[in-house]
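REVIEWER CHECKLIST
Item 1: Sequence provided? yes
Item 2: Single chain? yes
Item 3: Sequence as submitted:
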Amino acid sequence: MSSQVVLITGGLTGIGRAAAVAFAKKGAKLAVVGRRDEAGRALVKELRALGSEAEFFNADVRNDAEVRDAVDKTVARFGRLDVAVNNAATEGQVGPITVQTAESYAATFDTNVLGVLLSIKHEVRVMEKQRSGNIINISSTYGHEGAAFASVYVASKHAVEGITKSVALEVVKAGIRVNAVAPGPVDTGMLTRFTGTAENKAALVTQVPMDRLGVPDEQANAIVFIASNDASFITGHILNVDGGMTIS
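Item 4: Structure as written out by the authors:
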């Protein structure tokens, strides 16, 4: 059983929620960060039923003070921070480049990039004092490929992978590993919003060599692995969990 203290941003739905459940089943202590109190309380109840010590902290990852507060509350509650999963993200405004605006750019980058940057900033602040820690950022297949009609989202995930590799080099001597998990199409609410129609979602499946969408539990299993001692010699890596989309 694990005794890790794990903080997960965007932990109320989709991959973040699946990761919280997977860590709880391993015996980890969970700090789940999100913006909906009722959903947060419900998830904490579920995690505690699995035998985990768990708390919910309301914070917006775009706000430096709120991120700092969530990290500090985690340490105050559990005594340390071993693993951070930076999952909070938005699909942004899907559409051609000609409809994108400064506002649509900011709405996507403030969550997907600034949110990751601020989260890492405060996670590293704690982990450097411990001389240990694991940070796992959630990227996407689109973090290293292109996608028509998703230029701003794609750009934001490219940025996440750049931050991941750069910070991994910056903190490796402090005993901190920084990696990313890059999901392919996963059957979540975000994917439904991103594709817009059942026809678009079906068309996306045709791009997956395994001929199906992924499920959140598969991503969660990869996250738990990267956070474990079995991955102790891995840092600065982008782990593709995408049904073979990036083989070629």
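Item 5: Key structural point noted by reviewer: The helical segments are 14-25, 37-49, 64-78, 102-130, 151-171, 189-195, 198-205, 216-227.
Item 6: Recommendation: ____
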